[in-house]
Amino acid sequence: MDKKYFEKVILSHPRDNVATAKSPISPGTLLTFSRDKKIVAKEGIPFAHKISLQRIARGGSVIKYGEQIGRAIREIKPGEWVHIHNVAGERGRGKSRKKG
Amino acid sequence: MTLRIREMNFLGYKRPDGKVGVRNHVVILPSVACANEVCNAIARQVKGTVSIPHQHGCAQLAFDAEQTARTLIAVGKNPNVAAVLVIGLGCEVVNSSMVATKIEESGKPVKNLVIQEVGGSPKTIKEGVKIAKAMVSFASRLKREKAKPDSLILGVECGGSDACSGLSANPALGVTSDLLIKEGGTIILSETTESIGAEHILARRAINKKVRGKILEIVRRTEMRALNLGLDIGKANPAPGNYAGGITTLEEKSLGCVMKGGTGKIMEVLEYAEAPTQKGLVLMDTPGHDAESVTGLLAGGTQIIAFTTGRGSPMGSPIAPVIKIATNSYIYSKMKDNMDLNAGEIIIGNKSVQEMGEMILREVIRVANGKLTKSEILGHREFAINRIGPSF
Q1: What is the pLDDT of residues B301-353, one digit of tens each?
Q2: How far is B52 from chain A (nearest CA, A)?
Q3: B261 pLDDT tier (thresholds 50, 70, 90)
Q4: DSSP-derived secondary structure for B91-115
Q5: With b meaning 16 or more CB within 10 Å and e meaning fewer, what string describes B245-270?
Q6: Is A67's CB within 8 Å of B251's CB?
Q7: Is the Cβ pair A50, B166 closer than 8 Å?
Q8: Any chain B CB within 8 A of the CB of A82?
Q9: pTM
Q10: Interacting residues of B345 by C-beta distance below 8 A, sequence separation 6+
Q11: Which one, of B275, B353, B342, lies nearest residue B309 by Cα?
């Protein structure tokens, strides 16, 4: 298992650019991953939802479990809530798929 | 591994076909929806029986009729079933006498009544009660005998998933799957819709080229079924509750879903309601609809279902114990009446995935020995046959 458990989030794979909230995270919360890697939650993150660990460009891959789970439909900044408002999947969606 | 092999033996019901049941049900099975109430009435009067009402068996064609018949026959053959009374109306496509004859191949006692031949529902109920009483008496005299874990087929299912599913309960159940396979058992992983976006992981683990091709084919045909209709699977799967639980895309759901099968080689790919011919990890092509998927697994001969849930599902089955594993502690506390185990312990850091996987396996063996699951205690008997054609 490549999972890493931090105080407030779980990183499912070293390659991931999002982490999962272990409990609701309030805006302004400081998340510490290492001495150099710290992120401030820009907005509230509901339990089990994802927070961005880095800047993801529009059209960029969103990675969880070390795999692409979708693409950013607009730029996502570090510390932002990552969900259906800024990410779209590519599979099983046909014409209704939002282009990244 | 802290679990000793000896601890994995259990006491089960040996059936004439050599299979081992963990329950001993007498089933009252309608071959068509028109026989539902007659079956229910018999089951109400005879303790120890279970009726399995469904909506089908009439006005179906070709592959669709064949799939319904195959499912009903296979559910009757499931080793958790001691004896079966099949009831038909008389004019249906899924002929009850054919269903009964096919179930009888397993060597268990089977009887058939046809409402139009017996002369109406009250007479059929009266006759059915007489047969059911004798079947219950027969089943009650069967004794549990020593059995090995290699006789177990465990169905792994997830329903009402959340974004914890792929971090806690599903990888833990994957550990359970790997451990049971090591002891010669079989795991059926299903829900093809929830393999879309994760099929490359499954395909990599195919035992040979043919199986690899079949894995990719069932995923592709499921995806194309929606695309050819111009539909977005994401409007139904992930479901609204999945999104609320933090799952953002079908790919994310799928990557979490497939973890339930563990890391083993995939030995074969089954059509809906087909029985495995191989031991180890096998795939069954079922939709993401939980009741339809679990019904397919029952037909595949699974004696026990391990079912992970993050949003909370109370689902059971008429003939197999369903073990509910919560993916997070919130839902475990909130729906404790329906939950057997809490894999949310992984999220809060109290247990490792490995420890939880071993706990699930211990629970599987306890349930195989007769421990009732919450879904059984509460009488959950959800059942739904996957239709692949329209009614005419």
Answers
A1: 999 999 999 999 999 999 999 999 999 999 999 999 999 999 999 999 999 99
A2: 33
A3: very high
A4: S-SS-HHHHHHHHHTTSS-EEEEEH
A5: bbbbbbbbbbbbbbbbbbebebbbbb
A6: yes
A7: no
A8: yes
A9: 0.97
A10: B168, B329, B351, B356
A11: B342
In total, how many domains does chain A have?
Answer: 1
pLDDT in tens, B109-147: 999 999 999 999 999 999 999 999 999 999 999 999 999
A84 touches chain B (CB under 8 A): yes
CB-nearest to A48 from B201, B227, B328 is: B328
Which residues of B make CB contacts under 8 Å with A? 162-164, 166-167, 171, 193, 196-198, 201, 223, 226-227, 230-234, 237, 243, 245-246, 248-252, 254-256, 310, 328, 330, 347-349, 353
What is the number of CB-based contacts under 8 A between chain A and chain B?
106
Q: Which of B203, B221, B313, B218 lies closest to B274 in space, CA to CA?
A: B218
Residue A21 scores a pLDDT above 50: yes
**Given 3.40.109.10, 3.50.50.60, 3.90.230.10, 3.40.50.2300, which CATH number is that of B25-140?**
3.40.50.2300
The residue segments making up the domain with residue A82 are 4-96
